[in-house]
Design goal:
The chain is of the alpha/beta class. It has two domains: 2-137, 3-Layer(aba) Sandwich (Rossmann fold), CATH 3.40.50.2300; 145-206, Orthogonal Bundle (Arc Repressor Mutant, subunit A), CATH 1.10.10. It is 51% helix and 14% strand. Strands 2-1-3-4-5-6 form a six-stranded parallel β-sheet, sandwiched between helices. β3 (50-53), α3 and β4 (77-82) form a beta-alpha-beta unit. α7 packs across α9 and α8 (166-173) crosses α9. It is elongated and about 55 Å long.
């Protein structure tokens, strides 16, 4: 049996995911978490083979969460289950230690296949994500990744570079801390960096106001 943890903050999505996974004779759900901190706190007490992780959860999130889970003792393997199919999300997740990446738009059999491959120690990337990676890799490298940010993400970028915390950004923009945190994760991924310090260095190098 392949023991599976589910980490996603959307209850309806988790319920549907649980139902389709439990229909597979070789899968068993051993735990669920609604945020990164809960997952990290409980995972050691309930070991598993595969952890399904959403990149956009409150608390510890994004590629940082993937890195922490992958580094834990226990032999668990991380499969990211995300709404994002862009190359930078896939690459950053794999670099952080994930062995699989499946988009939420994928067919259920593609998820089942990714889980089984991950449990066997193989790399598993869903067709939607891999095709998006190929398309983007054939395009010229973007020398100015900040221009890919949405208007809201650029606001977050500027505030992070100015030294504002996620909580302060949430207050100033009238957002929830969770939403601001998700925007920060998206900015880091689109920019291809890991920390706010990297954003500051980029802003200085590009002389952004």
């Amino acid at each position: 049996m392949i023991r599976i943890w589910i980490a996603d903050d959307h209850a309806i999505f988790r319920e549907g995911l649980r139902q389709i996974l439990c229909d597979q004779p070789d899968f068993v759900i051993v735990g669920e978490a609604t945020n990164g901190a809960e997952l990290l706190a409980r995972l050691a007490a309930t070991p598993c083979d595969v952890v399904l992780v959403d990149l956009s959860m409150p608390g510890a999130e994004g590629v940082g969460l993937v890195r922490e889970v992958a580094a834990l003792d226990g032999g668990q393997r991380v499969v990211v289950l995300s709404m994002h199919e862009e190359r930078q999300y896939v690459i950053e997740a794999l670099k952080a230690g994930a062995v699989g990446y499946v988009t939420k738009a994928s067919a259920s059999d593609q998820l089942f296949d990714a889980i089984r491959k991950a449990a066997a120690g193989e790399l598993a990337v869903s067709p939607a994500a891999s095709q998006a990676m190929i398309r983007q890799m054939l395009q010229p490298e973007d020398p100015r990744p900040h221009e890919r940010l949405t208007a809201r993400e650029r606001q977050i970028f500027d505030l992070l570079v100015a030294g504002k915390t996620v909580s302060a950004i949430a207050r100033s923009l009238g957002l929830s801390v969770k939403t601001a945190s998700t925007h920060k994760s998206n900015v880091l991924l689109k920019m291809g960096v890991e920390t706010t310090t990297d954003l500051v260095r980029y802003a200085l190098a590009k002389r952004l106001d």
